Amino acid sequence: NAYGPDAVRFYTRRKTITERWPAAGAREGTAFSFPSHQ
Question: Cα separation of 6 and 26, whole Å?
Answer without folding.
Answer: 21
